[in-house]
Amino acid sequence: MNRRMKLLAAKAEKKQQRIEAGLLSEVFPKVKEITISMIYSQTGVLQPLSRTVNFAPGSFAIFKVNCLCSECLEGGFNFTRIIKSMVRNSKNVSKGKINCDTCSAPECIGVEYIITIKYAPK
């Protein structure tokens, strides 16, 4: 399989995963918004990189954020377990550190995150 075919297959698989995951409003009807704020710290980089990802009711309920390491091709940071636990416990904020699923590059040491969930009024 050539590179183009691999990319097309990966794209089709991601699309199928989104469809199967459903929308945020379907999976978590009480959730109004989810925000994941991340700080990437890499060895040898002076200034950490910040990134924010927002999920609205119409977003797909896939909470995996791609890794920014140049050597990491298919990995990422999977926040699904953390977010499911937060919603189950009606928690608004969670802070921590998470590593990439597959990256083994020594300069990629993960991200510090803050997840904020806003719930619809009762």
* Total beta-strand segments: 6
Shape category: flat
Q: Could you give a short account of the major beta sheet?
A: 4 strands, antiparallel
List SSEs in N-to-C order: HHEEEEHEE
Q: What is the percent of helical residues?
A: 25-40%
Mean pLDDT: 85
Q: Kindly give the count of domains.
A: 1
Q: Cα-atom Rg, whole angstroms? A: 16 Å
Helix/strand-derived category reads alpha+beta
Distance between the termini: 52 Å
Unreliable spans: none
Spatial order of strands in the largest sheet: 2-1-6-5
Give the DSSP E fraction (strand runs of 2 or more residues).
35-45%
Number of helices: 3
Features:
alpha+beta, flat, 4-stranded antiparallel sheet, 6 strands, 122 residues, two-stranded antiparallel sheet
Summarize the structure.
By secondary structure, the chain is of the alpha+beta class.
Description:
The chain is α+β, with helices and mostly antiparallel strands and about 120 residues long. The chain has one domain. Helix content is about 25%, strand content about 35%. It has three helices and six strands, in the order H-H-E-E-E-E-H-E-E. A four-stranded antiparallel beta sheet has the order 2-1-6-5, covered by helices on one side. It has a two-stranded antiparallel sheet with strand order 3-4. Strand 1 and strand 2 form a beta hairpin. The termini are far apart. The model has no long low-confidence stretch (mean pLDDT about 85).
